[in-house]
Design brief:
Helix content: over 70%
Strand content: under 5%
Number of helices: 8
Radius of gyration: 16 Å
Structural class: mainly alpha
Distance between the termini: 40 Å
Shape: globular
């Protein structure tokens, strides 16, 4: 299994941002990352300097979210939907997109569910529960 380091992830997004801005050709995953980067212009300054990005510490406070975690979650949800894993996530995100009006907003709502699942997994010491994650996204999609 591919397990990039924090530095690898940050350098990846910074490289994608630089390549995208220069018009250089992008690989498939880079193209997807570039689309999500374009949706978040508030992160462009963070992505413009790879060395500063690698050195920066994000405290996890509400004042400043970690752009690399946020973009990584967009990529994760995109990949989950492309292979429908955990099973049912594609339909749940599609329903959420229809309810909220944009894929971007649906991803942000799904991120909250994904984050909750990961937090519960870490807290309990058990593997992530994909079924509860999908159910949480489905609940958000069917809320009034």
């Amino acid at each position: 299994m591919f397990q990039p380091s924090q530095q690898d992830v940050r350098r990846f997004f910074c490289s994608v941002y630089a390549k995208s801005r220069s018009g250089a050709p992008l690989e498939a995953l880079e193209t997807l990352a570039a689309l999500w980067i374009d949706e978040h212009p508030e992160y462009h300054a963070d992505l413009a300097d790879a060395d500063a990005a690698v050195a920066r510490v994000y405290e996890g406070d509400a004042a400043r979210e970690n752009p690399f975690l946020h973009l990584s979650m967009h990529l994760s949800i995109s990949e989950q939907c492309s292979i429908d894993q955990p099973r049912g996530i594609r339909q749940a995100v599609e329903l959420l997109t229809a309810r909220l009006g944009t894929l971007h907003d649906a991803h942000h709502a799904a991120m909250e569910c994904l984050g909750q699942m990961l937090w519960e997994s870490q807290r309990s010491g058990r593997p992530p529960d994909g079924a509860s994650y999908v159910a949480a996204v489905q609940r958000r999609a069917t809320r009034d």
